[in-house]
Design goal:
Number of strands: 13
Order of helices and strands: EHEEEHHHHEHHHHEHEEHEEEEEH
Largest sheet: 6 strands, antiparallel
Distance between the termini: 25 Å
């Protein structure tokens, strides 16, 4: 276990430090059961960092002894969607677009039925009706938009992806759709005139002083990256060796659904910016009213969630963030959050002023609920 020195002690911010010992033991037990490869976290209260800890190994390989560090870089997967959300709201604030505009006003391929009724808010809330992510619903013959892009003829990746069709009419159902955030990224690119990945780096990541957050890893960052599987190991070795990635169609598609890499301390900075109504260290990234709009439950009770055998419950969702507050958590009603596969979570509690950034890489990618939900319950139990 490695603890980085923090500017504040738990007791100085009204947090019971003994609960961190409970959290660490929870992770150690899961590692012993071969459920987690490692775990690390960074917590702050009202911008005051009081915990920054890493437990476990850097690599999935038993033969590797290098330890995970508190500043280890990892894929944040779908937490990237929150960065894309902030980018959209920045453009809304600048008067360049509206959330109720149809996607077809920005992208011609969406002007044709059945896609012509989808608006920006539908994409932000996973209610567009487009095909949900693989695994959301049982379907032996499922094909994702990515499959159609992979096998397309020509270079129109949007047209190819839309071949996957629609699942429902817009606004009828909550169904997790990562491709919707790729389209949001494309809107960012077209409205701002800057490729979405670059826009996010310049207008969100850099102002938040997130020095270890990026879409494209440097050689130094690849050396500090966690290794979760053979595929990731191969990718990191290629970057370290200076090999260039293929300049194919994938480099032209925004990585706004899950392409960012970051650290727990960096994510804590991003969360603190949202906690402080869009401001970080005196720099305005977003306005207070935009953060309020983003983090208000948008989905109505008639919009049901059937993903991952949810059974048709009301999925409380904001315009980008997950607002869910069920029996799996100890969150207050205004708390917002997002998970990333693999796995990680960022949680912002504006009432308690607590921000928690958590990485819990699963063994063999097997999702384990108590790595995410039980852990955050322990974290919130420390509030005094």
């Amino acid at each position: 276990m490695i603890n980085f020195e923090t500017p504040f002690m738990p007791g100085e911010v009204g947090y019971n430090g003994d609960r961190l010992k409970v959290l660490n033991n929870h992770f150690l037990k899961m590692m012993k059961a071969n459920e987690l490869q490692a775990a690390n976290y960074c917590f702050s209260r009202d911008g005051k960092v009081f915990a920054n800890t890493a437990i476990g190994k850097l690599s999935y390989k038993e033969s590797e002894d290098s330890l995970l560090q508190p500043d280890t870089i990892q894929s944040i997967a779908s937490i990237t969607k929150l960065f894309c959300t902030v980018a959209i709201f920045q453009l809304v604030e600048d008067g360049k677009m509206r959330l109720n505009q149809t996607v077809g006003e920005f992208i011609d391929e969406f002007k044709a039925p059945p896609f012509d009724k989808i608006n920006v808010a539908h994409l932000l809330t996973h209610t567009s009706g487009m095909v949900a992510d693989g695994g959301c619903f049982e379907n032996k013959y499922f094909k994702s938009p990515w499959d159609y892009i992979e096998n397309m003829k020509g270079d129109n990746w949007i047209e190819a992806a839309l071949t996957s069709g629609m699942r429902k009419k817009p606004g009828e159902e909550w169904a997790y759709c990562s491709f919707g955030f790729v389209i949001l990224g494309e809107i960012v690119s077209r409205v701002s005139g800057v490729f979405a990945n670059d826009y996010i780096m310049e207008n969100i990541v850099k102002p938040c002083e997130m020095n270890d957050t990026c879409f494209e890893l440097s050689i130094e960052q690849a050396k500090r990256h966690s290794i979760r599987d053979e595929r990731m190991e191969k990718r990191m070795k290629a970057i370290i060796a200076g090999e260039k990635e293929d300049t194919d169609i994938w480099t032209k598609i925004p990585s706004t659904a899950g392409g960012l890499h970051s650290t727990a301390p960096d994510l804590c900075k991003f969360g603190t910016m949202l906690l402080h109504n869009g401001t970080y260290n005196g720099k305005r990234i977003l306005g207070r009213k935009a953060v309020e709009k983003m983090t208000t439950v948008y989905t109505t009770p008639d919009i049901k969630d059937y993903c991952w055998n949810a059974g048709g419950v009301h999925r409380q969702y904001g315009l980008g963030p997950d607002m869910g507050n069920d029996l799996a958590s100890l969150f207050g009603k205004d708390t917002f959050h997002h998970e990333g596969a693999g796995a990680c979570r960022l949680v912002i509690d504006p009432v308690e002023k607590l921000v928690a950034a958590l990485f819990v890489p699963f063994v063999n990618g097997n999702w384990v609920s108590h790595a995410i939900n039980n852990s955050t319950a322990i974290i919130w139990s420390g509030l005094e």
